[in-house]
Amino acid sequence: MAVDLKSLKKLESLPASALSEPRSDSDRLVVLVKLREGAHQPSYISPRAHMGPQIFSAEICAGDLQRMESDPSIESVSVTQRLPLIE
Amino acid sequence: MAAKKRSTRSGAGTKSKRAVRKPTKLLRKRTITEPMVAAPAGMWPADPVSLGFGWRPYQYLPGGAITAAAPSLVPALGGALAAISSDMLGTRLSAVSLPTIGALQTLPIKVAAALDPRLQLALANHRIGKRGMDLTSTAGDEVAVVARVKSVTDWRALPDVFPGSELGKASDASWIVTGRVPIQRVEAVRGDATVLSLKASQPLHPALAATIQAMDTAPGSLPPGTSPDGGNGVVVGIVDFGCDFAHQNFRLPNGRTRLLALWHQAGITRPDSPFGYGRLYSRDQINAALTSPNPYMALGYGPTPDNAFQTGTHGTHVMDIAAGNGRGSTQPGVAPKADIVFVEVAATDIAWQGPESVKNVFGDSVQLLEAVRFVFDTAGDRPCVCNISLGTNGGPHDGTSLVEQGLDAIVRERPNRAIVIAASNSQADGIHASGQIPAAAVHEIVWRQRSAGGGEFELWYPGARRLAVTLVAADGTEFGPVQPGQNLPIGSPGQIAIFMTSRLGDPNNHDNVIGIWLAEGLPGEDWIVRLQSTDGQAVDYHAWIERNDRAQASFTAPVATHTLGSISTGHETVVVGSYDAHKPQFPLSTFSSSGPTRDGRSKPEVSAPGHNVLAARSRTGVGVVRKSGTSMAAPAVTGLIALILAEARRNNRDLPIAVLRQKLMNHTRRNPPAIAANGWDIRYGHGRANAASIGDN
User: Fold this and answer.
1) Which site in B129, B305, B487, B500 is 20 to 30 Å from B70, CA atoms measured?
2) Structure pTM?
3) Same domain, B418 and B541
4) Above 0.95 for ipTM, yes or no?
5) What is the average per-residue pLDDT within B213-229?
């Protein structure tokens, strides 16, 4: 099943090129997740690294984004983006 | 309907220019008169034996057991020695592959015909996206010149000129001098009143780095009563590409390593890999490798060997500025006794996206954060400062992106921590536009492609307002309008050529963002982004064009503010601009990006020497190489913060990030630059970072 990234309100804005094609719900994504103040980490996500009490990184399936969309503990999600070297 | 409305345009004048553009003409005849051009001195890497001390550097090509830094460069290296040829030079033509002569057309490239022919060709090559080779004496985007000038002093003071040698006085009392000039600045330099003649390519002599002198961080110049002992006891983290752990500048007097750890994110995963990926090398493993005749082979990691696009790795150079000890090069960096943690970043191999890079050297936002997490975890309770040189042009530019929030969170966790980021080098690229869209009129922004390279446009505006957007091609074809909250894919079956989105309510700042993507290969230089308010209110906006190192698009009427990199607008990070410490007035580097942030905060915080900095060259053991960029300025401040933290530690004082930032900003040097007390400049920041901030004040 396809996941339309454009429809996800909790997803941090992405470059237009990243939104042009839907993703399969089984696609693997690396993301940053921000929790709402005081919220607990959802059990269906395994954090990779914590950046503070509210932000952590994780590898997920694109389908998890839709679950996060309706999860009140999640404030926002950012799909990893390429960062070139500043010379 | 839109044509009937009054129109404002950020690219005023462009339309008329397009209207009078002459049709492309076929060449009627061709004259082959390619001159013989001698390769400039220093074209080939220096003879290793001549590097000094009778020391022979390691010169190993990557083998099966070695994971080379920035592995995407390795394929290019495979045939590098055979492939390096003079047609890679900016002053030469590259081979072409065309089916017929009739396919040749006059190219719409404008270069001043009064220039030296080789400089004209260098400019023309640059404007079609050809990047020259990185040479021992020149970077790929600059050209070595010989000039006749009225005044040597004026020549040396010219922005963008890196002076070489004075060859003598001409019969008319003018002077013959050499230097290096960024290719895109050749016309401006030639137009200066002091320059009587300017020609390409002459031997050059490197100058000494002036970073230490300009920042007063030499032991004899420190504030009275301070003794930061070269950053002893502090950890300096470098998140970059290409760590030459074998260079003598990163080794103790007994030859052992100064690195606490080296994490290669693209290395082969082991059970002890941080966060489950990459290869971690411990201090003991590095020390063991250093006893081997081939330490890179022994460790299984080495900085990428030099190639047509690289002379010395970036990370080794950066690490030396911040924390080199001068054991090999004789020129110490700013914090020569600090311990070092290096992370060679990489991009995850799944589902990434973002701008292309000429050298394909990039990380990604999540793995960058994990690199920083690793650096501070490794430092533990010790004071620690982490240096970052990554970024791109897009993003909200208000510190709300999650990667910036993550960096802020890590720094706030405990005192005695800092993160330093290069401002970015996009000031001269014309990548930012801003203004106000009238309540009842169309507003147009002209977006210029380069070499049909396509591009990506991003416009941010307040969440309470509403805009419709239409894209107009050079032939007048209109795409859109796209209404707020909608999107529009355009192309042929199976291929999207243009994609437009108008998103409402970003979850982090609740602002709206319009994005347009033009695929590479679309014809026409100028594309018009036509904007119209749909709620009867005027709309303030900021727009950026995403970074594309191969063919950077630009606005025809750029606004030279708000050009900081995509992760350089956080609340707690320290962002650094670049100036030239070799010139008496410390002029800004023309590339050094400007603030403020989109939400009006004063960044960059400070500036530092980032122009023509000589620092460690990888795989030479003792050698140095000259590089310029805000990523040369950032590590100078990283080293300075290491000294501040070391001095605070000596005095048993904790420095929360807010206090540390204030010390740095309160004790800058000014006049030059002309900044009022407590003032701030969009590019210098609060002034030139200085050792005065080390004192307990």
Assistant:
1) B129
2) 0.79
3) no
4) no
5) 93
